[in-house]
């Protein structure tokens, strides 16, 4: 902006307009020189350029906002459409064992990004997992065979003298309760063996 005293210039113009004698007109001509007019024109041109630049930015922002709004609406429509597809896929994935094979279940889960912690990794995903599982299964089968082959012999009755080893009434009561419980369990095991229930 120029250093022109615009208020003084305005007052000189107003006085010159209403001056019948020409005195104030002379003062006006002294204040309005070609350099003052040029400075005012340059300032006006600069203000017009700034105004045009601001309007251009405002138009660009308006266009950007309209475009962003359209993109947002398109994205919201796409999300709504895809959420319905994802919901249907999740239902399919959840019914894995009832209607679909494990491979279909895995394919759907992978396609829709659903985590399936209930499935072990595929054989090609983790070869060591299969080997470790086979070793564990083999060890468990061997242990089951050992336990089934073993014969457990229970004493016919709980020791009668258990209470005599303990001191005091409470210990005697505990020992008596233990003896009675032991005998009841032994009777139940005997009944189950007589009924042919294996492992009892």
From TrEMBL:
Any Pfam family matching the protein: Ead_Ea22
Highest taxon of source: Bacteria
Coiled-coil region(s): 51-92
Keywords associated with the record: Coiled coil
UniProt keyword annotation of Coiled coil present: yes
InterPro entries xref list: Ead_Ea22
The protein's name in its UniProt record: Ead/Ea22-like family protein
Source organism phylogeny: Bacteria, Pseudomonadati, Pseudomonadota, Gammaproteobacteria, Enterobacterales
């Amino acid at each position: 902006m120029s250093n022109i005293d615009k208020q003084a210039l305005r007052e000189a113009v107003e006085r010159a307009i209403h001056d019948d004698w020409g005195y104030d007109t002379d003062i006006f001509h002294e204040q309005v020189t070609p350099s003052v007019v040029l400075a005012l024109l340059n300032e006006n041109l600069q203000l017009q350029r700034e105004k045009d630049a601001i309007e251009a930015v405002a138009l660009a922002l308006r266009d950007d906002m309209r475009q962003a709004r359209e993109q947002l609406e398109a994205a919201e429509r796409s999300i709504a459409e895809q959420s319905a597809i994802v919901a249907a896929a999740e239902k399919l994935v959840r019914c894995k064992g009832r209607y679909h094979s494990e491979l279909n279940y895995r394919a759907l889960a992978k396609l829709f990004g659903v985590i399936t912690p209930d499935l072990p990794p595929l054989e090609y995903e983790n070869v060591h997992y299969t080997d470790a599982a086979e070793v564990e299964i083999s060890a468990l089968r061997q242990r089951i065979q050992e336990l089934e082959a073993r014969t457990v012999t229970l004493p016919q009755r709980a020791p009668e003298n258990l209470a005599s080893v303990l001191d005091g009434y409470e210990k005697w009561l505990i020992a008596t309760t233990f003896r009675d419980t032991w005998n009841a369990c032994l009777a139940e095991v005997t009944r189950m063996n007589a009924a042919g229930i294996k492992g009892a």
